[in-house]
Every structure is written in structure tokens, then in C-alpha cells.
Amino acid sequence: MFEVAPTPAALPSTAPSSHSPWRMSVAPMMEWSDRHCRYFHRLLSRHTLLYTEMVNGGAVIHGGTERHLRFNAEEHPVALQLGGNDPATLARSAQLGAQWGYNEINLNCGCPSDRVKRGAFGASLMKEPQLVADCVKAMVDAVEVPVTVKHRIGIDKDENYDFVRDFIGTVAEAGCDTFIVHARNAWLNGISPKENRQIPPLRYGVVTQLKQDFPHLTIAINGGLNTDEAVLEQLARVDGVMVGREAYHNPWWLARWDEVFYGDAPNTLTREGVEAAMVDYMVREQALYGTPWASIARHMLGLRHGLRGARRWRQVWSDHHLKALSPHEVMALAHAAECAGD
Fold first, then answer.
1. Which of 212, 216, 254, 282 has a CA positioned 20 to 30 A from the CA of residue 333?
2. Per-residue CA distances from 195 to 1, 21, 104, 184, 190 (Å)
3. b/e map of 195-212 (b: 16 or more CB within 10 Å)?
4. Model confidence over 5-44: pLDDT tens digits?
């Protein structure tokens, strides 16, 4: 047996009570949305819901619980995304996630990668809605925080609406009342995960129809949304919007979200202030865990996206030859390079 060393108790969401907790969120992204990335994103938006990378439920239990579940208290609201297909394993890993203070447990039914396909979970789970329902029920019975499901609108090239409608209907009966819907099919053969985010056509109308057919459920949409206008258009139709790659590559967009999507007053953030806060975080992480600054800095390389000198600034923060320097020294070099222009 092992002991869980939980993080501080979950903090309440700071989102205005008139808005759904899922109004805006940053997607779970493998090898990207780790706790350092989430800390960075939280500096930019107070309200946005942040998701972890997908973590295999078995790994949570047997592969180092603290390594997989540790996060910064500042990240709240934060959701743990689990992968797997065994109800008992998912229930136990969800229980651990709740004990560590996650605000939500999410089941991945949307990832189309070969690795998860071989494990018979991710998007392939959509073929077995009753199994998903069993997994959800086990998780719901094990925790008091919301249990949600992220999924696609179909499998391979079958675009029959009844498939996704019946999937949601079956899973909802097990106790899930929030679904984050990637508005593309998952093609399980012949294309890569990256191509699965680009080639299957986006069909936003399917998600709108799901909300109309299940008005009592929370339905959030994911896929290809990268402007204020596109997000606002969807928020008029569904309960929330999840953004992935655009939030990662153009993170300064998040600095507008609290104002544009939550009605907050304009913030007083500056890119320089956010960068300085990240440098302080790098120092803290180095002292606590020996974390190299480069493993944190990689997540903020898009901070100066579109600005003069951004390329030189990014090159300095990407230069592993500087790893012996302190983060404050690297920041000074980055600013000097930025001022030199492109």
C-alpha cells in the first residue's frame, strides 16, 4: 500500500456564477499541457478551466501517483483527464485524483492515436457506449466532483448522427451530465493523430444539434476555434468552448478571455510581467524539485508571438547551451536579443 500526499484542498472556481464552469477551457494535450504549462496559462486567465494531459488510469495507481497527479494550487480550476477502459481502475484513479484536489475528472473517449487504440480506449471506446457508461458510473460512485467525457462526433467515415446521439444518451444515463465534443470524426486507420485534428471535416452543426436534443446536459465544443468571433458564435449555441493548439502556440490570446468571454474589466497584464512571473516560478521549481528551467520555458515560447524581435527572444529561451545560467540571466539575454530585432 502507498500513502497519497494530497495537494491543498481544491479551491472554488473564480468564474462568475452566471457562467458554466466549462464556458472556456484549454484542452488536454499530450506532452504539452503539463503542470508548468497550466501554471503559465493560469497567469493569463483567472477563469479558464485547465485540463491535464491524458493520464492512463493504471499508471495513476501503479506508476507513481505523485508524479502523475502533482499540480500547483494556483492552477485551480483544473481537471484531470484519465484514459482507460476498466471501471474499477478508473474508479480508483478518479478517487485518487479527487483526493489530490482536482475539480473534475474527465474520461478520454476522443484520442485516436495508435497507442490508445491498441489499449482499446480513447476514441475506440465510442464503439462500446455501454462500457463507457459502466466506467462513468464507477467513477461517479467513487467521487463527488463532476465526471465528464470528452469524445468525437463519430468514428471513421460514418457520419450518421444517431451514433453520437445514442452514445451521449447511453453515457448520460450512467450519471455524466457534461460532454466536451470534438466536432470531427476520429479516423482510426490511415492517418496520424495530427492529421486527425486537421483532415476529418469539422461539423459544428452536429454539436449544436446535440445541445438541442439534450438541453439538460452541458455540451461544450472543441475543434478549430481560434478567434474571438468564432468562440462567441459557438457560445451562443452551446455551453462552452475548448481550445487546444491555438491556446498553446498563441497564449497571449488567453489574456483577453476573462474580459471577452466572462465580462471582466480589462486586465493590466503585460507580457513582460507574465514572463517575470514565470521566471520566479522556474526558480521555485528548481529549488523544490530540481526542475531545469528549459522544461518550463518551452511552454511560453509563443508569448511574444507576432511581435518584433520575437524570434530572437524565442531562440534564447530555447538555447539549451544556456542551461547553466539562472532563469533571470536568461531573461536578460532574451530581452537584449529581442531589442536587437529580427
1. 254
2. 42, 30, 29, 11, 10
3. ebbeebebbbebbbbbbe
4. 333 333 445 667 678 999 999 999 999 999 999 999 999 9
Following CA atoms 92, 181, 298, 38 in sequence, which dihedral angle do they give, to the nearest 10 degrees?
Answer: -50
Sorted by sequence, the CB contacts under 8 Å of residue 319 that are 6+ apart come out as: none
Copy the grid coordinates of residue 173: 444515463
Give the Cα separation of 225 and 210 in Å (integer).
Answer: 18
Helix H or strand E encompassing 311: helix 310-317
| 108 grid coordinates | 478520454
CB within 8 Å of 279: residues ≥ 6 apart: 327, 328, 331
- Global confidence as pTM: 0.91
Interatomic CA distance for residues 334 and 313, integer angstroms: 5
Q: What is the CA radius of gyration of the chain?
A: 20
- Give the count of beta carbons closer than 10 Å to the beta carbon of residue 341: 9
Q: Identify whether the C-beta of residue 85 lies closer than 8 Å to the C-beta of residue 73.
A: no
DSSP assignment string, 34-51: SHHHHHHHHHH-SS-EEE
> Which residues make Cβ contacts (< 8 Å) with residue 145, sequence separation at least 6?
10, 98, 102, 103, 104, 105
Q: Cα(220)–Cα(62) distance, rounded to whole angstroms? A: 32
Tell me the catalytic residues.
Answer: 111
Asked if residue 76 lies in contact with residue 10, where contact means CB atoms within 8 angstroms, the answer is yes
